[in-house]
Amino acid sequence: MTERDTSRILAHPEAGEIRLEGVLHALSDPVRLSIVLDLAASAEDLACSYFVLPVTKSTTTHHFRVLRESGVVRQTYRGTTKLNALRRDELEELFPGLLDSVLKAAAAEEARLGS
C-alpha cells in the first residue's frame, strides 16, 4: 500500500471497544438516526452523497464521523466515494435487540407524529 492509500483508511473501533453509551449518543440525534434508518432499509452500502440532510456539508461529515467512531457504521472508500454500512451484526452481538428496538421505536414515532 502506498502512503496515499493508507491515508484513505478510516479508523473504526474494534467490536470490543464499542460502548453502549457511545452508540446511544450517536443514535440520539435525529439527523444521525435518519442516516441509520436509511442504512437499515438498504441492502447495499450507501455513499455519503446518497443522503439528503438538512445540514451543511461539514455538519454532515461530523454526523458520519460520530456514527463511525461510536461503532454504529463502517465507512470504506471505493475510489473517491465513501461508502457507509451499518455494523448490524456486531451491534446485535454486543447489545442484543438494541438496534432493532431503536429502529422499531423510530418507525412508531414517525407514524405517530407524521414527521
UniProtKB/TrEMBL annotation:
Residue ranges that the Swiss-Prot or TrEMBL entry lists as coiled coil: none
InterPro entries in the record: ArsR-like_HTH, HTH_ArsR_DNA-bd_dom, HTH_MetalResp_TranReg, WH-like_DNA-bd_sf, WH_DNA-bd_sf
All residue ranges annotated as the HTH arsR-type domain in the record: 12-106
Alphabetized UniProt keyword annotations: DNA-binding, Transcription, Transcription regulation
GO molecular function: DNA binding
PANTHER family assigned: TRANSCRIPTIONAL REGULATOR, ARSR FAMILY, TRANSCRIPTIONAL REGULATORY PROTEIN
Name this protein carries in UniProt: DNA-binding transcriptional ArsR family regulator
Organism: Streptomyces avidinii
